[in-house]
Design goal:
259 residues; 20% strand; two-stranded antiparallel ribbon; Beta-Lactamase; alpha+beta
Length: 259
């Protein structure tokens, strides 16, 4: 794990805060860890790690179970607060729930933050398959239909900045891996109004998404329906579901004007 922040700005970074952030991220990745394991992973002394863990525990950001430290539930409170700051969250949540019930599939709502997509709400219909995404999960934008929907509404400068920072790593053989291919697809998305994920995240999984625009004209998220290739094919995948998703995005946009 890098000891330096990935976000660059004109301000100075406080090393002690960075170490605490690295510890929290490592605890998440490792599903909990002890002092020695964290020290080795982060290339820090045990004394440094112990001091930071003690401070984090005193402020209830981590909990100790025997020799293991884990991220605490205080982050649930913080996360719910952050979610509530998204002005269209409630109207988007209602539409995602309706979409899942109507189609029987997985429906999701995503926004962009720091060049990544963040899932803010997920609902499962009666026929929905299990997917790895969850509320708060962060994904790179170029390989999900939701992410590509959002990217399609951003400026070329912003898109290039996101690629420069996060790259275009492949998840499957179908994942977009070049700028040229990505920009070509984003232009198609702008023309069609919807984006597709054709097994780009996971083999056997497809997704259709549409961008959601804020009343001020900026993109403020995207909504999607996901399902197995056995059900997402032919006219249902290319025509019926895109119309349903576009309609849901439009409902959110209209209701958002009342927020």
């Amino acid at each position: 794990m890098s000891k330096l922040p990935t976000e660059t700005d004109s301000g100075r970074h406080v090393q002690a805060v960075q170490i605490s952030c690295d510890i929290l991220e490592a605890l998440r990745e490792l599903d909990g860890a002890g002092v020695s394991e964290l020290a080795e992973k982060l290339d820090r002394s045990k004394a440094t790690i112990h001091n930071h863990l003690s401070t984090l525990a005193a402020n209830e950001f981590v909990v100790r179970n025997g020799d293991l430290y884990e991220v605490s539930l205080r982050f649930v409170d913080i996360g719910e607060y952050a979610k509530g700051q998204i002005d269209i969250y409630e109207v988007a949540k209602e539409e995602v729930d309706r979409l899942a019930e109507e189609t029987g599939e997985v429906a999701q709502f995503m926004i962009e933050e720091h060049g990544r997509g963040v899932y803010l709400h997920k609902a499962r219909g009666e026929n929905a398959i299990q997917t790895a995404s969850y509320t708060g999960n962060r994904k790179l934008l170029h390989y999900t239909a939701l992410g590509k929907s959002i990217l399609s509404q951003l400026s070329t400068e912003r898109i290039n900045a996101i690629i420069d920072r996060h790259g275009l790593p492949q998840r499957t053989s179908k994942t977009i891996a070049s700028r040229e291919e990505l920009f070509d697809e984003l232009e198609t998305i702008r023309q069609k109004g919807v984006a597709f994920d054709d097994e780009e995240v996971l083999q056997g999984l497809r997704c259709v998404a549409a961008p959601i625009k804020h009343p001020n004209g900026d993109v403020c998220g995207a909504i999607s329906i996901s399902g197995p290739t056995s059900r997402f094919k032919g006219d249902r995948f290319h025509k019926e579901l895109p119309e349903v998703v576009e309609g849901a995005a439009n409902v959110i946009e209209v209701n958002a004007t009342q927020v």
